[in-house]
Specification:
Chain lengths: ~300, ~700
């Protein structure tokens, strides 16, 4: 009899946990509404308490794969909330988003039995394919670190928007989820500068690629030679693989040339439907893109 | 020796004659308004002679005088504007002027979700469904190569040209020598004035809070924008030697535009909200506008920018003109697009300050169910011109837009006594047609500063004999840019405004050169086969929506170009059968241009892909392939939404674009229920269902 009661209790507990996991999405949405309501009452303490409750409820009982899915969801929601054009943070969030989509797809593809996942932040050391899972998670963490570095850089320039209330909720959750992941990884695996450095190169490469696509909008017909020169310079930046190469390029006369052109490039006066936002978007892609690359290569891990 | 000398002289003479531009004489009917002592509501039969880009002569003719006239003008190119089987000569009008267009997005289809539910332009621009419908379909392909963006601009030019517009406002690059003229291009005119400026925005709510909250209190004490800004910068960045006199100057702007330097010169904490962003990013453009108007060395023409787009009763919309006044940009030759939210009590001020309004009734009504207070604007004497806006919520040309305007006035759905106001209580519809005619010809000419005629000495660089040649009218000394339209009505305004559509645009002449028109006219002008027969629309392009998803892995410019070339090669193998529901009585044609030859990018694009951007068929194919197979909604469902992916490629000609035609026809009907009434009836329900309304309220709060 006692054994039956124990087994029944275990069964009920396990169902409740799974139910929470499967329904955590709906719970998250309704709890986020609660947070918003608390925020709108503008009681900082109440808001912070609500945040903590929501965050704990979502994560405490969830397995690591679902936690990564939440990160993906926060990122996606944040991305959708941001303006299509002219939002500085959106551009770097996009690069992070690609990384998380890639790693999440990979993790899902190698996961054998999701229902039997242990309720912990990270895969257990003796689980199958442990190493490749950890590598994927480290990649997400490293990419997040670079994204946040660049986000801080853009904040420091004071040309960044503050975002709106909804964006800030998602950014807050994203930050907390990412720092939880990072702390766990550091405790278990230690710092991994190598993987952060790879993420820095990857971001720089993508920023340079975007900038190159926009160059014809920045340079007039009369300045096609200058445009080609700057384009070649961005292409060189994309080929950087060592600190030495990075240093050489950011101290080169070509860097001075590119910066001077892009910093003072005239507003396109765009009458595109997006107007000022289109102008800002082009500026972020090119001038600020170059500044962000410079920042990354100056602060290489 | 003598023989050699005379041979050389003969060769030289031939060369001189070869280089001298041949006069073009068009004989046809013209509105009486262009002839002294003629009834403005009647036609006059006569001629115009265009040489060196300008109408050099024009006059009346009796039919009995034609033979003598031809003898007197032997050697000049004379075209009788009478089509085969037509009983009347066609009518010559000045080329139409469209002062508002978004030239990059006109290859999108109609946006069916706009049903008059929005309060202002910021509401729908931030709506996720809009982002999917527009950005989701216009990207990422439009950034694959400069040539692809070029194709979108050229598409808009083709819309305009086939519907009689010869001066088109809108951002465009690589449209030189393609067909018609750009409003913003100084080279479109014979004039000493600087180019028309046309930024989309003067005022963006997210960028103007600094002005409203920080500078506003200072400005409201009687100080100017410059005084307020200089004072504020000085307060927070004391080492910058800024004054009201130099805050717009180039030296000061250089400091402001160096964003890192600016941040280092200002205090770190306690800065007003968005201070750095405003000084670095926004103020230089405001200063640019001020300097444009105040440049003693270069007379300005005009500025065109959006303002107060949305409903009249939207609280934020009503504030935008106030912000413009704070900036000190309520200046003569400033023209506001839409301006619906400007309170009508300010109309007399607009008229006095010579500030114009550009009216896009179709787009206003489709998006907001309201449009400009035309009655009061007209009474106050505000300058008014029409603009087509863009295809998703507007029309393809002012020739279509003007018909919507006409129906709106005649139906007078809001009982604003429009007919009596515009006809001076006579009720004569031809008077309304005359007013509308002016809105697409003379009024925009005045509003962009190109309505004067001034004679000048003939020079090598300007052999026209004029230093200022007007647009928007037929006169000696006006630009030789005209359209020829079928005769269908005894009133010359009604003939164009009500009766003419794309089947009736029989010739388009730009600066004395034919670019488009009926085959018979082009043959008479000596183009024989040097043109492309139109339309080249095809319903078959829509099958591309089912093409398999193909994404370029290599996102570098080279990689994307290669991917694009591959797509073009693959999808060009299909035979896209011509769709022609237009049933023109006579074939239309577009004269071969050679703009690609003088553009290295377009030339190398042609070599790589086989696409010639001087050919309408190639432009159509390039756009169709891209927009249907490479839109984000289709290829990246994580960021786009498959349900919003484009399902068809809209035809160039409206007569081949059923959905566009249907929307035009059903929107305002003289009698009975129409789409406008239906939209208004269900507006509140739509707002509730779509969860709208919050954003305009928040904006109004920020700008109390």
């Amino acid at each position: 009899m006692k054994i039956i009661i124990v087994l029944l209790s275990f069964f009920v507990f396990s169902c409740a946990s799974n139910q929470l996991g499967r329904n955590s999405q709906e719970s998250m949405d309704s709890l986020l509404v609660a947070e918003k309501a608390a925020g709108q009452r503008q009681l900082a303490t109440e808001q912070s308490e609500t945040s903590n409750k929501i965050f704990s409820k979502i994560f405490d009982n969830d397995d690591y794969l679902n936690r990564i899915r939440h990160i993906g969801k926060y990122t996606n929601e944040l991305f959708i909330l941001m303006e299509v054009k002219g939002h500085p943070r959106k551009r770097i969030l996009q690069i992070f988003k690609k990384e998380i989509d890639t790693q999440l797809a990979y993790l899902v593809s190698i996961e054998r039995n999701a229902d039997s996942l242990p309720k912990a932040w990270l895969p257990q050391p003796n689980s199958d394919e442990y190493d490749s899972k950890i590598k994927s998670l480290k990649s997400i963490s490293a990419s997040a670190e670079v994204m946040l570095q660049l986000s801080s850089y853009l904040s420091a320039t004071k040309v960044m928007d503050d975002g709106n209330y909804d964006q800030n909720i998602y950014f807050r959750y994203l930050n907390r989820a990412l720092s939880a992941l990072r702390s766990e990884l550091i405790i278990r695996e230690g710092n991994n500068d190598q993987i952060v450095r790879q993420a820095q190169f990857s971001f720089a490469d993508q920023l340079a690629s975007e900038a190159r696509l926009n160059l014809y909008k920045v340079f007039t017909k009369k300045n096609r030679d200058a445009q080609k020169k700057v384009d070649l310079f961005f292409a060189d930046l994309q080929r950087v693989r060592t600190s030495r190469q990075a240093q050489a390029l950011i101290e080169s006369p070509d860097m001075v040339f590119a910066r001077s052109y892009l910093a003072y490039s005239e507003s396109t006066g765009s009458s595109d439907i997006e107007g000022i936002r289109e102008d800002m978007d082009i500026k972020i892609a090119t001038y600020f893109g170059l500044e962000m690359i410079k920042y990354l290569y100056t602060h290489l891990n | 020796m003598k023989k050699i000398f005379y041979t050389l002289m003969l060769l030289f003479s031939i060369q001189v004659f070869a280089e001298t531009e041949k006069s073009l004489i068009l004989i046809g009917q013209m509105p009486g308004r262009y002839f002294k002592d003629s009834d403005v509501h009647q036609y006059v039969f006569g001629y115009i002679e265009i040489e060196n880009r300008v109408i050099q002569k024009m006059g009346q003719l009796e039919t009995t005088q034609i033979k003598d006239f031809e003898k007197q003008n032997d050697g000049k190119q004379i075209v009788h504007l009478k089509r085969p089987q037509a009983s009347e000569y066609d009518v010559i009008y000045p080329g139409l002027i469209n002062l508002h267009n978004h030239t990059k997005q006109n290859n999108l289809p109609i946006w069916g979700e706009a049903v008059g539910q929005f309060a202002n332009r910021f509401e729908w621009r931030d709506w996720p469904n809009y982002k999917y419908s527009v950005s989701g379909n216009m990207n990422p392909w439009v950034d694959y190569a400069r040539a692809v963006e070029c194709a979108t601009f050229r598409w808009s030019e083709l819309h305009a040209m086939t519907l009689g517009t010869t001066y088109l406002q809108g951002p465009s690059s690589c449209v030189d020598q393609f067909g018609i003229q750009r409003v913003e291009d100084a080279g479109s005119y014979i004039s000493a004035k600087t180019a028309v400026q046309a930024p989309t925005d003067l005022v963006m709510p997210s960028e103007m809070q600094f002005v409203w909250n920080t500078l506003g209190p200072i400005i409201r004490t009687g100080k100017t924008y410059e005084q307020a800004l200089a004072q504020t910068i000085k307060q927070f960045c004391p080492t910058i030697a800024v004054t009201a006199d130099n805050v717009n100057g180039s030296d000061m702007l250089k400091i402001f535009k160096d964003q890192a330097k600016l941040v280092s010169l200002c205090q770190k904490d306690g800065l007003p909200d968005k201070f750095v962003r405003y000084v670095y990013w926004i103020h230089p453009t405001v200063a640019g506008r001020k300097n444009y108007f105040n440049n003693p060395k270069a007379p300005f023409s005009a500025v065109i920018a959006h303002l107060a787009e949305g409903r009249r009763d939207d609280a934020y919309n009503q504030k935008e003109y106030e912000i413009v006044k704070m900036l000190g940009l309520d200046l003569p030759q400033m023209n506001f697009v839409h301006g619906v939210g400007i309170p009508s009590k300010d109309y007399p001020e607009l008229a006095k300050k010579k500030i114009g309004l550009i009216w896009s009734p179709f787009s206003n009504l489709i998006l907001y169910s309201q449009t400009l207070d035309i009655s009061n604007a007209f009474k106050a004497g505000v300058r008014l011109a029409l603009g087509s806006d863009w295809v998703p919520t507007g029309t393809k040309s002012v020739l279509e837009e003007v018909k919507i305007a006409r129906r709106y006035i005649l139906k007078d759905i809001d009982k604003e006594d429009l007919v009596n106001t515009l006809t001076n209580n006579t009720g004569k519809v031809e008077k309304i047609d005359e007013i509308l005619f002016k809105m697409i010809t003379e009024n925009p000419a005045e509003m962009i500063g190109h309505s004067e005629i001034k004679k000048a000495a003939v020079t090598k660089t300007n052999p026209s004999g004029y230093s200022e040649a007007a647009v928007g009218r037929l006169a000696e000394g006006a630009m030789g840019t005209v359209i020829v339209v079928s005769y269908q009505d005894k009133n010359p305004y009604t003939n164009l405004i009500e009766k003419a559509d794309e089947k009736d645009i029989n010739l388009v002449v730009v600066d004395g050169h034919a670019v488009y028109g009926n085959k018979s006219y082009l043959d008479k002008l000596g183009f024989a086969s040097k043109y492309e027969i139109l339309p080249v629309d095809s319903d078959d392009y829509s099958k591309l929506k089912d093409a398999p998803i193909k994404v370029s892995v290599d996102k570098t410019p080279e990689g994307l170009l290669k991917h694009l070339a591959g797509l073009i090669s693959e999808y060009s193998k299909t035979d896209y059968k011509n769709t022609d529901k237009c049933n023109f009585k006579e074939e239309k044609a577009y004269v071969f241009q050679s703009s690609v030859e003088s553009d290295e990018d377009l030339k190398s694009f042609r070599t790589l892909t086989g696409i010639n951007l001087d050919r309408v068929s190639d432009i159509t194919r390039l756009l169709a392939i891209n927009i249907l197979t490479q839109n984000r909604n289709k290829i990246d469902p994580a960021e786009g939404k498959p349900g919003f992916s484009m399902q068809y490629f809209p035809a160039l000609y409206s007569c081949n674009d059923e959905r566009h035609q249907k929307r035009l026809a059903n929107f305002i009907k003289p009698e009975g229920d129409d789409d406008l009434e239906k939209n208004r009836k269900y507006r509140k329900d739509t707002i509730e269902k779509q969860n709208l309304g919050r954003a305009p309220g928040l904006l109004a709060e920020k700008y109390k």
